[in-house]
Amino acid sequence: MRLEDALLDSCLCQPDAPLGGDPRRLLVSDKSTAKQQLSDLKPWLNQQQTLLWANRRDAVLLLLQGPDCSGKDGVIRHVLSACNPQGLALHSFQAPSPAERAEHWLQRYRQRLPAPGLLGVFNRSYYEGLVSDLQDGLCPDAALASRRAEVATLETQLGQQRIHLLKCYLQLSRGEQRLRLERRLELPSKRWKLSRADLEAHRQFDSLQARWASELAASHSSAAPWYVIPADHRWQRDLLVASLLARTLERLQLDWPAQPAPFSLAELQACAG
Question: pTM of the predicted model, to two decimals?
Fold first, then answer.
């Protein structure tokens, strides 16, 4: 049901040019087939999430990063709608509040790591502390090396805690971002999402992408790889992320937990009297 490994692996970050690919490139050429494939995959994802929850041994953490309008909310809406909300731990991170700035910068992310059995989703993540915090003047450039080291330590700890990490960067072209911002301006149903910061980020699109390219290259490894998802085509983006999530769950080889029943059929039937 999911996309084949070779196609998924073609999205692996290339550290020498992390954002060198064309965000408009088509890896899946048939839109209607891709949408049907995603629809067919959703019941399987739902079952695997239930198995994850039933076993309460492992957790999965999906990181969604990307420029404004790249579709982080869209992935959550179209892909994770397959999942039982009770088994999801979904968090969206904005700029840190004054109270959060008074804590260690990683604390707010550590507090929201998924417990065993949960599928966690970070809409933006601790990588914002390596890019946006510097861009917004919340962290000096001199602290970047130590923050990178802290992120590497955190991701090692995730593996030790059986939290399986899937890092997806949704790559969007500047032209497509402009078109999506125009649509948000035009539609009241989308205009509420906008702020002045979105305009400034669009102005700084190239410099922000250069910063992200540096961080993707620095933090990509075989143990915690980045997948760079061409995101100009929403339908392809959703199927790619869904297939990567499916592969992550496949590798856990989940099955129903083998445990004795807490009571017998005879005990249950005795309640009838």
Answer: 0.95
Name the packing angle between helices 205-219 and 144-160 (round to 10°): 50
User: What are 17's two structure tokens?
Assistant: 């040019």
Give how many domains the chain has, as a whole number: 1
Residue 27 within any structural domain of the chain: yes
R_g (Cα) of the chain, nearest Å = 20
Any domain includes 31: yes
Asked whether the beta carbons of 151 and 109 are under 8 A apart, the reply is: no
Residue 194 counted as domain residue: no
Inter-residue contact 23 to 232 (CB < 8 Å): yes
Q: Under a CB-based contact definition with an 8 Å cutoff, are residues 130 and 147 in contact?
A: yes
Position 80 in a domain: yes
Mean pLDDT confidence for 226-232:
98
Return the axis-axis angle of helices 196-203 and 174-186, rounded to nearest 10°: 160
pLDDT tens digits along 68-81: 999 999 999 999 99
Strand order in the sheet with 226-230: 88-92, 119-123, 59-65, 163-171, 226-230
| Count of beta carbons in the 10 Å neighbourhood of residue 36 | 12
